[in-house]
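P.,

For your records, the input lines for the assembly:
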Amino acid sequence: MSTPHDSQELSVTGDGTPPARFENPGLHEHKPRQADVDPRVAKRVERQVLTLLTLSILGTVAVVWAYFALPPGETVGSMRLSNLVLGLGLAVCLLGIGIGGNYYIKLLMSNREYVEERHPTASSDETREIAVQMLKDGAEDSGLTRRGAIIGAGVTALALFPLSILVPLIGNVGEDWNVRKFKHTMWKKGTRLATDPTGRPIKASDVTIGDVWHVIPEGLNDLHEGKLDEKAKAVVLLVRLDPRDLKSDQSPEGETWSHDGIVAYSKICTHVGCPVALYEQQTHHLLCPCHQSTFDVADSCKVVFGPAKRPLPQLPITVDDEGYLVAQGDFAEPIGPSFWERATK
Amino acid sequence: MKALAARRHDRRAPALLLLLALLLVGAVYAVLAPSSAQAAAETATAEDIAAGEKLFQANCSTCHGPSAAGTESGPSLIGVGAAAVDFQVGTGRMPMQMQGPQAQAKPVQFDEEQISQLAAFVASLGAGPSIPTAEMVDPALGDVASGMALFRTNCAMCHNAIGAGGALSQGKFAPNLWDTTPTHLYEAMLTGPQSMPVFNEANLTPEEKRDIIAFIDEQGNGSPGGLDLGSLGPVGEGLWAWVAGLGLLLGLSVWIGAKSS
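Structure tokens returned:
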């Protein structure tokens, strides 16, 4: 955008008055290229274009050959070779056409400029008047101008029609609107803690200090329907700390949610629900891989860094008669990120 | 004997007897209790342990203390077992060059014999995990598919989906696993070096550990799709796409649009 000051400078003639009319500067002077004047250069460029196009042909041949002669096979090496030859062949084939074509157009094809004058786009006044009159006559002829109710009903019908598509479409998003599902998981009183993904129940005596166990509820692997949905809510990280290092956990007055330094916390980040599982054994910090929210396992899983706002919910655990770790019940609060209906604390 | 009998009513006699009894119980327990430390000590001779102690005093005691009980600058090594020593010294992480966020792998400072002597000495200090046998870590005997499922759950969050490594907090990082020997992989899972948690034999059974080793071994064979660009995921690949890919396209556009001479 030029400022008023600039445009004045440009439009002022020698004696200080703007010119009545700007002259069309016209086309640049046509400069012949090297290939236009020197036939040896033209011949060389021609050979280069031919080479590029021949390379492209060879590339296509190589792709077809490799497709039959180099099947991906069973080993990483043969897959790598097959993919490499197919990819390189395709690249040579397409780049050969592209670069060769552009090379020809830029260096050999005639580059003389031609000017075509544009005709006016608007029709004549007479034609436009006739067109408007024809529309008016048509509207009158249809009889709708005298029947307002039909127009109203027609507009309403058209306006309502999209609902027939939108209502089922939006209604099907997420399949159901049962918000209570967010608030409960598979954990029940007495559900044994089992290893993920093998599903072996975990004995408290097998958990040593510094261990980290990825845990699912026992019986999750037997589910046929909704297994992944349940797993996404119920996964837990189990850690045993030296009881002296365990500063606090989330158990309320008069209850014990941990067992002899063993604590279990939901693996679903309270920020946006990624699986929090990077556990640093020495600092007792648990990191979320998505946005680096950091929770202190030794101190109620409080947030020490990052965008998460709430600690990870703790799964209350104890041991059963056979020494296996079991849940005392479901999480005390909904796991994972906030949602509208979640009661805030 | 007479002198002993005469002093049996001495005030100190009960305490002395108690001490003797405790020593006897301790000795019987040490003989009877099966432990991996003992298993490791069995293959290691007393000379190995003595040589290991000398090496320890010369190279490790500054940080870990003369009795390996730990100081402010290094943890206690009592009960860490031969596996921890074989991993830390065998990958060059110990002796540490300097204090830092984490000990890094560097050229190994000791030969195999010295490492096994050091391991024998540390194993003799207290029961701890021992070095796995060659069969326990043979990738050819592991199930790659089961290893992948276990790796995804237990290891991928820190070490990347195919073991290429990744960043942790404050300068710490999870290293790339492709060039780590199967024995060292097993030992790392068993002992949990530095920031890494422990995966004991109940958490991941020896067969499961071998499956994981087989999976990692499979990843080290190169990528089936040509250039892997470091296998670091969207950040690394995005950098290539934006800088190299878009740069090439921009260059070609400028070339197509430029007037030729």
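Two observations worth noting. Chain B has two domains: 36-128, 132-222. The longest helix of chain B spans residues 234-257.

Regards
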